[in-house]
Amino acid sequence: MAGPTLGGSLRILGFKGIDVHVHWTFLLLVGYVAVTTAATGAVLREVLLQLAYVGLVFACVVLHEYGHALTALRYGVRTRDITLLPIGGVASLERMPEEPAQEFWITMAGPLVNLVLAVLAGTVQWFFFGGLHVLDPREGAAVLPGLLSFLFTANLSLFLFNLLPAFPMDGGRILRALLSLRLPRVQATRIATGVGRALAAVLGIGGLYFGEPMLALIGVFIWFAAGAEARAVIQQTALRGITAAQVMRTRFWALPGEATVGRAVDELLAGGDQDLLVVESGKPVGLVTRRQLMEALRARREERPLREVPPTPVEGVPPGMGAQQALQQLALRGLPLLPVVDGGVVVGVLEPDNLAEFLQVQGMRARQRPGA
Ligand SMILES: [Zn+2]
User: Fold this and answer.
1) For the chain: N or C, fewer Cβ within 10 A?
2) What CATH architecture does domain 244-368 belong to?
3) Edge-to-edge strands of the sheet including 254-256?
C-alpha cells in the first residue's frame, strides 16, 4: 500500500534512509493472537511460537514495502517511511508518478517480492524435502520444512491478497495504471474505484453471511479507501495548470519580529488568524501558532519580541509554483500554512482549506457560465 504517514508510531529499523515504524495499534494484533492462542489451552512456548509466526509474516510485509520504496527511488521518488499496521504495511511515498508505466512498476514491485520469496521457499522445499507439502510446525512437523512451507503459503497469500483489484490494495493501482494506458486518468480511477467498491460489497456481505467479521471489516475499509483515492485524483486533475498565486489567501496576519508578544495577543483578540506569520522587512522568517502565543503569555513574556518565542522557520514558495506541488510541500513539511513570496516579499499564504474553497468556487462559476 502507499499512503500518508500515520501518527503514534515507533521506529524499529531503517535501510537506505527509509525508516520502518510500528503503529501502536499493532499491539492490538499481538494481544489478540496471544489471547486467542492461550484460550485454546496452549502453553507459553506455543503462544510465543505463534507470535514468532506473526513476526515472520510482518518481516515479509516489510520486504514487500521495501519493494515499492526501492523501485520508487529508481524513478527519483523518495519514501518518507514505512508503517506497519495490524492489517499490513504502508509505504509513504512522497508522490506517486502520474506516468502509468512508472506507477505500474512501483506498485507491482511489492507483490513481486512476495512471489519471489514464495518461489524460493517452495523450490528449496521441493528439492530438499521432497515436494510441496503444507506442513504445520505447530502440529509437530520438523522445524525447517515446516518453516519453509509456512513461508511458501504466507508469501503466496500476500501476493494474491495484494493483487485484489481494489484501492488501497496494490491490485487497485495496477488496474488503474493499466486502464490509464487507454483512458484519461480520472476515468481510469473511476472505473478502478467502481470495481473496488463492487469487491468491497461482496467481501462485506460475504463476511456477514459466513460469519467472518474480519472479512466484513476489510470490505468496509476498502469501500471508504476507494472513495478517498478517487477524490484525490479528481482534485489533482482539477488543479492542473493552477498556480499558487491563484489559490492563495491575500489577506493574512503578519507582524515584524520586533513586535511584542503582547501586541500579537491584542491583535489575536481583535480577530487574528490561527497562525501568525513573522516577517523581517517583508521576508517571512517563521510561524507562531495561537498555542505558542498563549504559552509565551503564560510564561509572562508579554514584553518580549516575537522573534524570541521563537517562531517555527518557514520558507516561502514562488507565486508561479503549481498549486498541487505547493500543497504537497505544505503537507510534507507538516506546516499549517506556507507563505507565497514574490521578489522577497510575502504576497499571500497557502492553506489546505484555500484549495477546497477554490475548487468549489470554480465549480460554481463553471455551472453559471452561459451555455454550460
Ligand atoms: Zn503493496
Assistant:
1) C
2) Roll (3.10)
3) 254-256, 275-280, 283-289, 312-313
Q: How far is the CA of 136 from the centre of ligand 1 (A)?
A: 27
Number of helical (H) and strand (E) elements in the chain, helices listed first: 12, 10
Quote the ligand 1 centre to 91 CA distance (angstroms). 8
pLDDT, position 50: 78
Q: Which residues pair with 255 in a beta bridge?
A: 278
**Partners of residue 349 on adjacent β-strands:** 249, 339
The pLDDT of residue 269 is 85
Query: Which residues surround the ion ligand 1 when the cut-off is CB under 5 Å?
Result: 110, 170
Q: In angstroms, what is the span from residue 174 Cα to ligand 1's centroid? A: 10
> How close is the Cα of 122 to the center of ligand 1, in Å?
22
3-state secondary structure of 353: helix
**What is residue 168's three-state secondary structure?**
coil
Q: Which residues of 151-173 are buried (b: 16+ CB within 10 A; e: fewer)?
A: bbbbbbebbeebbbbbbbbbbbb
3-class state of residue 278 by DSSP: strand
